[in-house]
Amino acid sequence: MNLNIDKLDLQIIEYLTQDAQISYADLGKKLFVSPGTVHVRIKKLQESGIVSGTRMHVDLKKLGFDVIAFIGIYLEKSSLYDVVASELVKIPEIVRMNYTTGNWSIFAEVVCKDIAQLRSVLHDELQKIKGIERTETFISLEESLNRTVKVMADEENDAP
Amino acid sequence: MNLNIDKLDLQIIEYLTQDAQISYADLGKKLFVSPGTVHVRIKKLQESGIVSGTRMHVDLKKLGFDVIAFIGIYLEKSSLYDVVASELVKIPEIVRMNYTTGNWSIFAEVVCKDIAQLRSVLHDELQKIKGIERTETFISLEESLNRTVKVMADEENDAP
DNA sequence: ATTGAAAGAGTCTCAGT
DNA sequence: ACTGAGACTCTTTCAAT
């Protein structure tokens, strides 16, 4: 698929990555193009695979998920990455996994209802996975920022 | 605001946090209620602040952002958190910040186009912020999982 | 590639249960 | 609190530029 991304595409991405609820009509007004053009561009972005989907975001604390934690995982051998990762995916509390440089082989993020549930993930779930040497856990006491990356270099702005 | 979240609410959240594009009509069919009921529930979730918004997701690599990295930040004094955080927010490459237990005071995530840009963030941007003692950087070589938390304990399933 | 207009689909409201 | 139907808005298509 061809990826000829111009300024208009980036502007559309910039808006929709922050709020995907805005209508094509309103977005068109902001960007001085017709709703049809917005539609064509978004369709292009979806077909090219640049847009991978749309997700609703919820306030996890209000749903009773009070604990976010990061877990650095040391493996006995780094070649065990795939097999350990495939076990970790089965744990629903794990929402993200990255294969990283540095101390650990795997860096994971978990979301739990409380400390007891986190303890259960660490002690019950992770312990039974073969290949994990040890783990280091960092509990988030406060998430002070969570945003999307700015896809446009701020060369130009658009008039009101 | 009252938060009386029942099973139907959780099912709606479960679907929409994975794909916010599904129509109320289709969601109603899956959950055996009318589109109007889905609408009422979602409106309730939005007004109660449980739903914090909807975001389009993009494949960052396809937009030229090839580097995701995690940065652990040591502060000279942990009381400097607020003042340092307010400086970090100004750096557009930083997309997430957590105040964590353990080694570091601040744990940040950055998204960059390439290693040169990451180096610039570390060397040019972070260096000039007073109060940062040192940093540790972990570059993600692969993101093998990125999903939302399962909000429903899997007690019950719904028939097809 | 963008537009304006028409057709189709979805959201939103409300009276009834 | 849920539903079904109507009113309304938005998406989607398409011929024309």
From TrEMBL, chains A, B:
Protein name: Lrp/AsnC ligand binding domain-containing protein
Keyword NADP belongs to the record: no
GO MF annotation terms: sequence-specific DNA binding
Lineage: Bacteria, Pseudomonadati, Bacteroidota, Chitinophagia, Chitinophagales
SUPFAM superfamilies, alphabetized: Dimeric alpha+beta barrel, Winged helix' DNA-binding domain
Any one cellular-component term (Gene Ontology): cytosol
Gene3D superfamilies: 3.30.70.920, Winged helix-like DNA-binding domain superfamily/Winged helix DNA-binding domain (1.10.10.10)
Example GO BP: response to amino acid
Species of provenance: Paraflavisolibacter caeni
Domain HTH asnC-type: 5-66
Keyword annotations of the record: DNA-binding, Transcription, Transcription regulation
Keyword Methyltransferase: no
